[in-house]
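We give the chain.
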Amino acid sequence: MNGKKPVLVTTWFGSFLLKGKDVLDERLFPKDPGSIAERRMAVKEGKVLQEEEELASQTDEKILVNTKRLSSLGEVTSMDVEPPSPKDRSYGMGLLQEALRLEGKEALRGSVERDKHLAKAVDAIQDLNETLNILTERIGDWYSLHYPELVDREDEMLELIKKHGDRDTMMGITGEHNDSVGSELGEREKLLLQTMAGQILDIRSYREELQEYVKETMEDIAPTLTALTGPKLGGELIAHAGSLKKLAMMPSSTIQVLGAEKSLFKHLEKGTPPPKHGYILQHPFVHRSAPEVRGKVARMFANKIAIASRIDQFGGEDRGDILKSELKRRIDKLDG
């Protein structure tokens, strides 16, 4: 009985409606590696191709399909069917090889989850923080040879150096009058310092872009964790763990000391007191707690972080504000 029904079959180069050995209808794919790769990926994702829908709609007969993916179009059968060969339709194997290459490239690109990009951005921010601290200290030390009084005004220093260079020009612009004890500044040194100040300001601006990216990405991929910890701390925890999934799989005791590995190794090797907290110390819930209860607060906080990361990773309604309120009530009882 089944042998009398048309069977819908899809190969890498096209879709065919077969009845026995006869091809009732067909839809060949474009002879383009990208188009073929796109359709192969769609099939792997369980999607029904447009060509398959067209063939199924071309007949009034009930059709059979040879895969559960197409069960919406017909009855699934295990019957063996033999579609035309690619050679019969002038499709060379070189075309398939190129399509497979593109498919693999796209699969590799798609395998890099957004939290991996987030982790790299967090690492970059930490590197920039170190670089900015070093460069800001360096330019302050250098410029103090010329205008030591300005170095105490760090917030203005970089902009003033970039725009005006020497102290006489600065004081002429700002209307200040200062008998500086610094030495004169040569034209070459002035230009070098102006360039350095500009680069430091550019790095600061780029750091702000990265921080905004981290904030937006955290709110998108980990809203529960973000509401609980804030985007900065949450991002650092994900970056240190390696991914949101890895963080979600960690026990709360491990989360509690993330970032304190050196102290933990020292405890294991030399018997020093074990660390009670790592990155989470920076959160007000922990660092504002009384010293005698700080360890307990850190444990409770780490437990909530574990719950939040699992909600975000494995699906569930955003409960960040609820977890935060519950934690705050418990901390208030400890401090009270």
Notes: Residues 187-221 form the longest helix (35 residues). The beta strands are 7-10, 14-19, 22-28, 64-65, 75-76.
